[in-house]
Design brief:
Layout lengths: L1 E7 L3 E6 L4 H8 L16 E4 L4 E3 L11 E5 L7
Parallel strand pairs: 1-5
Antiparallel strand pairs: 1-2, 3-4, 3-5
Length: 79
């Protein structure tokens, strides 16, 4: 099953497979998500989803729940 993943604010959209790591999807789309520990504890890769959920991209895969997933990127100048 494919999910269309949209990265904001740059409005970059790419198709992804359910279960594909979100960082891999972002990389294929040419979207940079900062990382630190790659285990979810440092919160460098924190992003927001359209439904208001805040996730850590390094430990999150594309979920099967929607046909489209919108990811709101923001940057922390300390990273």
């Amino acid at each position: 099953m494919n999910v269309r993943v949209r990265f904001l604010p740059d409005d970059v959209t790419i198709d992804a497979e359910v279960g594909e790591p979100l960082l891999d999807v972002a990389d294929r789309a040419g979207v940079f998500i900062p990382t630190g520990c790659l285990m979810g504890t440092c919160h460098a890769c924190t992003v927001d989803l359209d439904d208001g959920e805040t996730i850590r991209a390094c430990i999150t895969s594309v979920p099967p729940k929607d046909e489209e997933l919108t990811v709101h990127l923001f940057s922390d100048p300390t990273w």
